[in-house]
């Protein structure tokens, strides 16, 4: 399979991780979209701008190394998260369970691993996995609970800010309590499942194994990239997936940044940020 990956910064620090590479007898692609804690927490590592960036990049890098050493996806994910947990606890001098939940960094997961005749998919939170089947069917896997929580927060922000002429930052501040409350639903029954240093979300990952011969292309995207197809409606997802290249992804991202800059007050397309980090991996023929 051909492959590419792209990660474009949308804020002060890129908290996404994206990569795609060849494996013996196959290939893999990975996107992890880090979410900054909403309560102050000391930096785990001075080598990163935020703890979300530290978490996504350190877990992502370890997963890639372990996959390339021949580890199974589940083993690679569990080992990478456990190593990140140990690093966090050593840096802060306490167990992760003793920290306020809203302070702990978390992340999404979109992972596709092709080995031999099978394509294995792992998904957590709202980084969609998109599969274009040879039949033309399009399969999209994401976390509908988390998306509904985000949609409700945005709708409330729109309601509270109507006619006030507020900036994007001021509008987001109007629903800070609701966003924090949503984070309290992380990795609990009835809430949503994601990557975090506890590793509790991994056993609840969305998993799917498909015959590789039935798949024309597969991609994992951060929500900041998927918005181009969803909320912004800039391209048809199926048609784009069929002919995607690094340069078509870069062009789409560039056009999306122009659209977002022209809507800096979040009026035309209500959302939490003017622009978000935009990342993708794609594998296909």
Description:
This is Protein phosphatase 2C domain-containing protein. There is one protein chain. This protein has 285 residues and is α+β, with helices and mostly antiparallel strands. The chain has a single domain (2-274), classed as PPM-type phosphatase domain (Phosphatase 2c, domain 1). The chain has eight helices and eleven strands. It has helices spanning 51-68, 73-92, 144-161, 168-173, 176-183, 223-226, 237-242, 246-261; strands at 2-8, 16-23, 26-35, 106-107, 109-115, 118-124, 129-133, 138-141, 206-211, 215-221, 278-284. Strands 2, 3, 4, 5, 6 and 9 form a six-stranded antiparallel sheet that branches. Strands 1-11-10-7-8 form a five-stranded antiparallel sheet. Helix 1 (51-68) runs antiparallel to helix 2. It is globular.
SSE topology string? EEEHHEEEEEHHHEEHHHE
> CATH H level: which superfamily?
PPM-type phosphatase domain
- The level of helicity is 25-40%
- Just name the CATH architecture: 4-Layer Sandwich
What is the count of helical runs?
A: 8
CATH topology: Phosphatase 2c, domain 1
Mean pLDDT across the residues is: 96
Overall body shape = globular
> Radius of gyration, Cα only, in angstroms?
18 Å
Structural class: alpha+beta
Integer tally of domains: 1
What does the main sheet amount to? Answer: 6 strands, antiparallel
Q: Strand percentage, roughly?
A: 15-25%
Poorly predicted parts: none
- Measured distance between first and last alpha carbons: 5 Å
Beta strand count: 11
The CATH class turns out to be Alpha Beta
């Amino acid at each position: 399979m051909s492959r590419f990956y792209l990660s474009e910064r949308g804020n002060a620090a890129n908290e996404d991780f994206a990569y795609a590479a060849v494996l013996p007898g196959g290939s893999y692609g990975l996107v992890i979209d880090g979410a900054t804690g909403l309560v102050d927490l000391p930096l785990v590592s001075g080598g990163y701008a935020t703890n979300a960036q530290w978490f996504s990049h350190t877990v992502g890098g370890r997963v890639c190394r372990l996959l390339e050493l021949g580890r199974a996806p589940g083993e690679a994910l569990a080992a990478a998260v456990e190593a990140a947990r140990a690093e966090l606890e050593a840096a802060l001098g306490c167990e992760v369970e003793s920290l306020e939940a809203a302070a702990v960094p978390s992340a999404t997961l979109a992972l596709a691993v092709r080995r031999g005749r099978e394509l294995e998919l792992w998904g957590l939170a709202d980084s969609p996995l998109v599969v274009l089947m040879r039949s033309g069917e399009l399969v999209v896997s994401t976390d509908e609970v988390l998306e509904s929580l985000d949609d409700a927060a945005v709708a409330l922000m729109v309601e509270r800010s109507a006619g006030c002429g507020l900036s994007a930052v001021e509008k987001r501040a109007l629903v800070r309590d609701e966003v924090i409350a949503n984070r309290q639903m992380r990795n609990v029954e009835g809430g949503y499942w994601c990557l975090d240093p506890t590793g509790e979300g991994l056993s609840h990952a969305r998993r799917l194994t498909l015959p590789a011969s039935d798949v024309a292309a597969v991609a994992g995207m951060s929500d900041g990239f998927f918005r181009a197809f969803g909320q912004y409606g800039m391209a048809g997802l199926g048609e784009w997936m069929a002919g995607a290249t690094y340069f078509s992804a870069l062009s789409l991202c560039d056009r999306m940044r122009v659209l977002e800059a022209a809507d800096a007050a979040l009026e035309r397309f209500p959302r939490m940020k003017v622009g978000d980090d935009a990342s993708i991996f794609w594998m296909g023929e």
